[in-house]
Amino acid sequence: MARILSYAKIPIANAKSIKFAEVLETSWDTARWNNAATEVMVHWEGKTPPTIQTILKQTGGAVSTHSVTLAAIDSPAGRSTWGTQPSPPPKPKKK
Amino acid sequence: MPTGIGSGIAGQVFAEPPGSGAFACPTGYSLEFDGLTEYGQRNVPGNGSPQLGIVGTGSFTMCFWVKAPVLGNYYLASAQAFPNPVAPNVNAWAVRWLNNGAFSLRSTGSAVPGGNLAALSASGFSANTWHLVALVYDNAANTVLWNVNGVQSGLIASTVSRDIILGSTTFFDLGRTFTGGYFNGNMCHFAVFNQALTPSELVELRDNSAGKCYASDFSFSSTLTYYLPMFNPSGVYTDPLTETVGGKDITLFNMSATNVSTDYPPSL
Fold first, then answer.
1. Disruptive mutation site among B30, B32, B36, B42 for chain A (greatest number of A CBs within 10 Å)
2. CB neighbours of B130 closer than 8 A, spacing ≥ 6?
3. Residues B55-61: what's their mean pLDDT?
């Protein structure tokens, strides 16, 4: 059965709030970051996880489908923003 | 378990009909990659990737089944040494499926012209179709070629100047490379044999509807040196992904049990 995956891009300032148990990303260090290492991509199957909903409300970000995300990343603009695979940024320390 | 010629009853021998499941390794699953975030990686100094050929210079066949919903610039598998070794030890190699539907292998690390291993298949291997893809290196004939679906594809490249040693590298990535190139599609039965399989032997792998096991049921099984069944035959998700010959298991990142797909090659 085909998977129905959803994706969101989270700014680094909010990324520390991600509960990795709620998304398919294994960890901060193994998730995919944009070229500037300022934004991380997370994905999940089914309902949007609560912490992701909260983060998206804060950031004004949106959930997108697999096909839309693929097309965006594969566009010239997407490749220039996400086309390389930088080292993950250091995780912000808890205050 | 049958020996491969059929089931004997009271001295009679019957041919097994296709799909009869006469052997212990029927195929029913594949590993699905999303093309965006999902990949596998093994990171073990000097023991991450499969060694290609005995001592990294012998004949070998690297083969796998693959299918993609759309064509792209995909890195199916890539190996990288760390730190950079001295030539002619391999620095890196990668198997790619290109936008034009061709398959490509390139190694780096040789210091002499023609010293690396490189091969390019014909183009046009289409999306939405399973392909059995094999890179065949013959160190006696000094040739390397692609065979897709049991048929030679592209030109036979001469390897008379080859000096690269394709030993096991520290990093081995499945479904991407260090710099991206995420694979969008399905893969199963990633294998390396320490011999140059013939087209007819690759046809045996292609038409394995009886569920023969790579490790035991083919005339060339004894040269299997690396094998990722990719959840076959059980369909049970495991992380790390099990490498059944040498234990070079691969950690799966950003994946879950939903990456076990019931899409598999129709000839199996």
1. B36
2. B65, B66, B67, B186, B264, B265, B266, B267
3. 98
